[in-house]
Design a protein that fits this description.
The chain has helices spanning about 10-15, 20-25, 30-35, 45-55, 90-100, 115-120, 135-145, 170-175, 185-190, 190-210, 240-245; strands spanning about 35-40, 60-65, 105-110, 125-130, 150-155, 160-165, 220-225, 230-235. With about 250 residues, the protein is an alpha/beta fold. The radius of gyration is 18 Å and the shape is globular. The termini are far apart.
Amino acid sequence: MTPDPLTREELRRYSRPLLVPEWLEAGAQERLRAARVLVVGAGGLGGPVLLHLAGSGVGRLVIADGDTVDLSNLHRQTHFFTADVGRPKAEVAAERVRAVNPWVEVETAPALGEATAAALVANTDLVIDATDNFGTRYLIADTCTAQGREWVWGAASGTTGLVSVFGPALGLRDVFAAATDDHSCAEAGVLGPVAAVVGHMMALEALKVLGGVGKPLRGQLWTFDGLTAGVRTLKLRPEKEAASARL
């Protein structure tokens, strides 16, 4: 089905990305308007993702997060304010999205769990894993793989950031077959800008996947060292294959 052409108001709002030749030629803006994206986690990674996807014109966003805003979140989750402490993160994030772009349809959902994962992932074009624990990450991975969905994955801990795009052909369990210790911000700490860098990179990867432009990080792992500003992109191989190569 051919999407409807952009309206005059849309052409004005999205005039800057439409100046990017690759974006315009791919009809990416129309693709974005038709997309439905599930963002799991509305914190330090999810916040930048949500605001950029909203500002860029994603048609529908579903925000899944069962936490409330805590004072310790504010140094990195800058989409929350001091007055938001104690409020549900998903609810506040939805308010911020609507303030950025009232044309975006926003839904909120409780934390992703065994009973809700399949329904939340169904009928989405892309899932964003902006969580901070292996249990939820693997649940997202298993559900997306079962339903043939791609998902953008990111992690930030201390001064290090990681981003990739996983899918049925190469998923999280293929690369990290067994969970190591969780390195959540509450345990390992994180510098606020590191989480922001990762969140912005995740948003960019999501736009590339949804818009059909560029080369998303499929089969690759983007790494960032906040202490040296070093950036590397590594080719991923299934953990079993990598272990065999070392023998």
